[in-house]
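SUBJECT: A protein chain and its fold
Encoding: whole-number codes for local backbone shapes
RECORD BEGINS BELOW THIS LINE
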Amino acid sequence: MKPQMNPARIDFVTLKLFCAIAQSGSITKGASECHLALSAASRRISELEETVGLMLLDRSAKGVTLTPAGHAVMQHSLRLFQGFEQFSNELNEFAKGSKGHVRLWANMSSLTEFLPSALASFLKEHREIQVEVEEQLSGDIVKALLDGIADIGVFAEGTPTTGLNTQVIGHDELVIVCSQDHAIHSRKSISFEECLEFDFVGLNRGSSLLELTSRHAERLNKHMRLRIQVRSYDAMCQMIAVNLGIGVLPYQACAPQIKALGLKVIRLEDAWAKRNLLLAIKQDGRQSPASTLLCQHLISQSH
């Protein structure tokens, strides 16, 4: 039984030469079109015929014509060239950033406030880019960036960012939120130390916001009296509305829920209540063109 042809022995230069010879009807013209010496072109065609085990060209004094096998080789070659052109064009799209996949990890505040409109405008402009968004705690976002699990992180300032390049893309103010019936509802502003005399509604353990407020309570040699803990800002507002406690919340992210439930907002007098929102990428990490495009867009949306 005759062994099967080894495709690895056939290269694109030879196939391109074969098509040029077939279309011109001349080995000389085909060689010239492919910028090859006539002897080199003849050798390539002979080696191609030897590889496939078939005569591909009928040679005569008038030139060359295709054998039936030669017609098949030409048809498949043209399809290969077309496929390779599509392959090349698609890779160019990825290289330019017009196609690609970006892993974006963000904290709850940025997902409810800054990112929705910014992502909507980006994806409208770049329909071939897929952005995979995950809500995570700030500390987990930093770790994911350093481990290469996430491409871009967006989170509140206050988490250690060693090994990352960061840029401020927004601002956030933490406020005290309480019900209309709470003892402090008439206050315009209040210190966090005064708030520690009351019960709190907070997020579940591990939340960066809970870690922040607990840390500042410890600095005052006090602790937060957490009466109930929930998983979201919306749930916090619901619990605050029925007077189960007061809460520390980012105002911009929670304004719609606060207004809808008729809650009272009291300004926190502590300097740490005003926070920056950071965009972060791994320091010296290689960013894909799509990731770079999204970073640039998010920064542009912050101004």
Observations:
- The radius of gyration is 33 Å.
- The chain has twelve helices and twelve strands.
- The CA atoms of residues 189 and 239 lie 21 Å apart.
- The longest strand covers residues 164-178.
